[in-house]
Amino acid sequence: KAYREQENKWIHTLGKLDPASVKKDAKFKKMARSGIPASVRARVWQFLAGSDSYKKNGHYQNLCQRQRSKIFDVIDRDIPRCYPDHSQFSDATGQGQRDLGDILKAYSHYNTQLEYCQGMGRLAGCMLMHMPAEDSFWLLVATIDRYMNGYFTPSLSQIRIDAYIIGELLKDHQPKLAQHLESNDIQPIMYIAQWFMTAFTLTLPWSSVLRVWDVFYFEGVKVFYRISLAILELIKDHLLNECPTNSEILTFLLHIPHNYLEPDALLDCAFRIKLSKTDIRRYAKKANGSTTDAMGLPLEHGLKNLMAGNPTSTSFKGLGGKIIK
Question: Would you place residue 286 in the very low, low, confident or very high pLDDT band (cuts 50, 70, 90)?
Fold first, then answer.
């Protein structure tokens, strides 16, 4: 009964309200955090991300028909590696791999500055599991432009800043673990790059991935910080007691057994963590002025990403790279 009620509320919302109004409503925030019903998940993700505002009739088909470029060889090589164990993408000549290739190649033409980067395939593949290829393409466009700006640049600028932020937040929330990692030369970039650039699809059990994406599209990239800190909290005892060396720590961080990361435990832990956008902005500015790997990197991408979960945010189309219309 509760499932049907939530399903009906989302269906009603999609036809009546705009995303900014929904994101101001604490009831909808609670609904997103409890999990969006599978039957409406695709529509709600697109609605919250505002992907319809990017759509142009026939444009995706036009992009798919454009001339082959050098980056296509890289995309073709990566496609079979994106979801090798998923039935939708296991056949090299199947529709799943064809659709995934079309989306990534179309995006490389759409955004000629970014073109393609590993990680995009995991995002697009997850989208394809829930919606048709063209809808997946426009959701990928909106996700990179509004939520993950700066993640897929050659310098990985925003990932490097985010890694610094996670390191500082870890010192605040779990100083003993932060010291253990630092003393073993484990830098946050070593695990945050995989976690963030694939939106946790390589890290979490699938039931947790979908719950994280539900709140990601509602609240923005701040959720990634929460989930990262929650993961580290849930595996803290193992890291401190069972992983005394650099290689053991890093192996565990990149291959965490899924029993540690079930959705209810993960999200309950994540939302108990006190975290404000003010803290994130403060550490982003500190990263920019520090002597770390993030020194001198632009802050604009991260500040824009934070606004994706802000009810007052509006369209930011065109800021993610050189967009070919």
Answer: confident
